[in-house]
Amino acid sequence: MNKPTNLFQKPPSFMTRREMLRRCGAGFGLVGLAAMWGKDLLAGESAPGQPLAVKPTHFPAKAKYVIQILANGGPSQMDTFDPKPMLTKYHGQRLPLHFATERPTGTALGTPFTFQKYGQCGLEVSELFGPLAAQHADKLCVIRSMHTDVPIHESSLRMMNCGASIMARPSIGAWVTYGLGTENQNLPGFVVLVPKGMPVAGADNWQSSFLPGAFQGTYIETLNKKPQELIENLRNSYLSPEEQRAQLSFVDKLNQRHQSARHEAALEARIHSFEMAFRMQNAATDAFDIDREPAYIRTMYGDTAQAKQMLIARRLVERGVRFVQVWHGTLQPWDSHNNIANDHRNLARDCCQGITALLTDLEARGLLDETLVIWGGEFGRTPTVELTQDAALKPTAGRDHNNHGFTMWLAGGGAKGGVIHGATDDFGFGAVKDKVHVHDLQATVLHLLGMDHEKLVYRHSGRDFRLTDVHGHVVKELLA
Amino acid sequence: MQNRRIIAGLLAGALLATGTLCGAEIKPRAKGKAIDIEVERQHWSYQVVQNPPPPTLKNRRWPQADLDRFILARLEEERLKPSLPAEKRTLIRRAYFDLIGLPPTYQEVEAFVADRSPKAFAELVDKLLARPEYGQRWGRHWLDVARYADTIEQSVDGERRIPFAHTYRDYVIDALNADKPFNQFVVEQIAADLLPKQDKADLRALGFLTVGRHFRANEDGPNLVIDDRIDVVTRGFLGMTVSCARCHDHKFDPVPTADYYSLFGILGSMQEPLDLPELSRKGDAAAIEKYEKERARILKEYDEHVTACMATANQHFRDLVTEYLQVIVSSSPNHRTIEGSVPLDTPRGLLYYKAPGRWEALLAQSKQSGEPFFKLWHQLMDLPKEGFAAKAQTVLSGMTAQPAAYHPLIVAAFHEQKPETMLEVAGIYGKVIQDSLKTETDEARYVTNLVYGPSSPVPPHDRQEMIDDIHRFLTEKELVNRKDGERGDGLRTQLSVLEATAPVERPMAVVAMSQPMDPHILIRGEMKNVGASVPRRFLQVLAKVDDRKYADDGRLELARAIASPENPLVARVIVNRIWQQHFGVGLVASSDDFGVMGQAPSHPELLDHLAAWFIEHGWSLKALHRYILSSATWQQSSATDERAMAKDPANRLLWRMSPRRLEFEPMRDSLLYVAGRLDAKLGGRSAPLDDNNLRRAVYGYTDRFRIPSLLRNFDVANPDTSIARRSETTVPLQALFLMNSSFVRQQAEALMKRPEMVQANSIEAKIAKAFELVYSRQPSRDELKMAQEYLGHVAEGEAGAKQWASFLQGLLISNEFVFLD
Q1: Do A98 and B481 touch (CB under 8 A)?
Q2: What's the complex ipTM?
């Protein structure tokens, strides 16, 4: 490895645009290190100092990338993707069934929204996501029988993102990049987009926990920031690119001289990391700069904070970023305890166009087949109306958290389109048919990415840990 | 596993395959088979520490310390040779970073090189161990184990600060600097408050138990806090993963679930008081007075709030008797009125979430004792819903026929009654109980005593029970409504906010509960699934150390058992942790798991030798550092050797010194130090590691909710759980920090302005000075040329300054600055 590194290596001209976007990071350094390591790597194994290098799957994958759209706070299934005419009939009366949730709830609250059938599959969707369904109903794989353990935001977000409601465990994005590495070494492998602030449970949602820090999600606030400001220290405000290039060439000379007497892989890896960082400065700025999109694309996505994030997500995946989390917002925006008719309408208005455009755009670019899009919250909401908790016990016109049953959907990435899987009871309170626990969904996501959720393990604290703990079954019915 | 694979790397392929490094045989217990402690105790780490004689060797000249003979014996076995001794320049740099986490100055290096005395190195080590920076460097290692952070992970109102977390950090640093015997260090961190002879400052040690996550947003929160303590105590001191036995017997190690709950009883029998003792105060009198007034106000309001909640709860349970009894009826298997769970909103108010459980406990108690008041209730509850009215009449006739077996108030109340449903029965019972409260007869007193008296599980009995409930998670509350809970939380937050900037220091002390917890196994770890009672005692696999059942809370006994010289684990675990920091990898690579699934020691006899040596030398960590650093093993060169590399690329046999990279903290500290800006002050509150923070990184503010990505990018330990060994990754985000951050640039500019640099009056002299300041050496001729080429014709003024800064930054971010030979 005495070959001088080349900071300015151009990718060969025969590469396609996408190949080029992804590959330009992997120079000779990477190949050299892998060769130096001299062994075949399995999912989860890394060459020294190269935790993010691409690793093979356990079996052929359907999906290569994931965009996880988090409607954090818990969207209501009865008001979106799980119509319940019986609930409307019972409106204002006690239901014959009741489940304890976080707060007291009273009588039935029928949906204020109208539902319509879409697509060949006849998927019924409320007006909130009508435009999405109108274009993509037959691509959606709707799971109406999701359930999770507790009706508490923090716990359920940890369950959804880390597979454990209590302890801090690695996030699914960390597990996936640990298992597969990432294709573009000029960008982080796991990116977390939040308009501003932190969702409930904070960094727990994208942490690498006991996995190496390299797999931690890179948290990015997207609102009102220039592309080069999104990643910390991405830009040098002291030197021009030429000056920096000269400086790094000098550092490289120092390092080569130092290394030549030592031949340590770790030294070589660090030399290489400067090359990558140098290229990342441009690559990342470019990746996050949605102004480089043509006007018709920007118009298609719309002008909201959500739309901007969806477009960034597409640009990232296009460049080979493995896992993108897209959060609706800080704390728990979908948490409509009060006035759900108004709040849910506004929330859906913020994101529906962007999500619709994302699916359209991914498909147009041939990316939808290999990109798994996941939509949902950490849980759903009660069909019963929440009660205030003072002596009056008045209804609030909103719904409480509901872990017993809720809806999520998948699209692309090997998920079967036009499918409605499972069902809740007549009122939407609890999942009753073909129940899918969050661990089952996680097992299925890993399966689509070519990994066996029981084999993707990491030894910590005396035992092998995995995303799905000791649970989870791949839901075959969801696979295309 | 992967970080071990990355680092310990090719070991598996090269050595294990040939069987030359034998691991303990892993024989997972057959599925479903119970733990046989006697058999499983045979695992190597539970055996008494031996003090094996150092082996005899062919090469008698190489060893400098007894420990070298164990290393050399293994090398000779493998026909490998140890490396040559490192050069003095390498040695001093290695010693500085190992012991104090900062580089030697050029002058220090030169003086050491010039010192021909055979004692020069030993004296250097003594000097470094005596510096306060030693405690700062090694304190950080222990803080990884202790999962130290300055905040809890999350709170509803956003106030996350643990106001006195830093007092624990300071305790650790002080203890290390004072070379507090390790066994004492152990005992204090578990039970400083219970020691017969106490130094108030040692109460700070208890932060070890209280500086973890608080799990407030969890139904199971209080149990998880105890679980966290069990984990940090057992993994931290014993290399045992006892928390794996929370839900079932440990799958691999001889730790039955009963042992987990024995420790649960010990580590759960303490409280974290709101009103912490005072250690010291600082600041002007007016500020202190204002603080104290405010503090007294909050504590008083809190106290009054607890009193008010007690009264409210008592009244609530008197007002809503019928409603509670009706909930029990509606959710019973025989009389269920709704699918799922019964709503808690009633026309007369909202019931407390988990309070029905207290009434169920009362009824269960009554059923078991066979007392007469609820006798009829139990009989009627047992009837099916179908045809209830008729069957109830039969029971009631039975009661009329034999009234003596029933309570007279019940006999009277049900006289001529024809209840159609069990809900009606609940109504009658409720009325009897409420009427009794207004009546002064023996019969009525019997009822009120039964339902509200000191042995009834219904009302709150002591303030602590109420305090616990006020802060319990919303859906778990039994004694307060949401509003009163929030008010209590709010007052606690007010106090936290005040204490977070208080002019006084307080230890994060705990106090033993007046009545220790009587632990029960929770089946599958579930709160509601209570199994057999277990004694408070030490782990059974270590029963030879202490097999008593503790009459009191047992925390001091536990601490002493852990710190006992008879304990086969505690000394082995700590000497291994120290070894790991000196060599990159421990003799046992899994330094927090000495169990069956952990890795076997590469040099089992050496591990025992070190453990015995350590105990013999008064559990002195400084003595152990001296011993290790005096060895030929530690003093080897790190140069590679093709043959040895092929055989043992991971260097498990220590045929050379493994080259190491500085972790984030010593790297940042060294940047500041070389720039002449490091503030090496000891102690005090943490502050974020921003550009203006010139203190050592161990004093950086760690927020569990918002861990700075910079720290995680550089593999700084995640503070949520005890970390035995950091991962070591190389990613471009690290390089971006070094290339582009204002922090690094500022250090380069400060370095440029150091008088030594300014005074150097030629380009050549400046370059040479830069090498002295950054690398503690002179540049070679070609390095000088390289630097001159880069600098070219340095301009005057601003442009020249910029170029010099870029040059210096280049030196600071180069490999030589962060790698140790």
Answers
A1: no
A2: 0.89
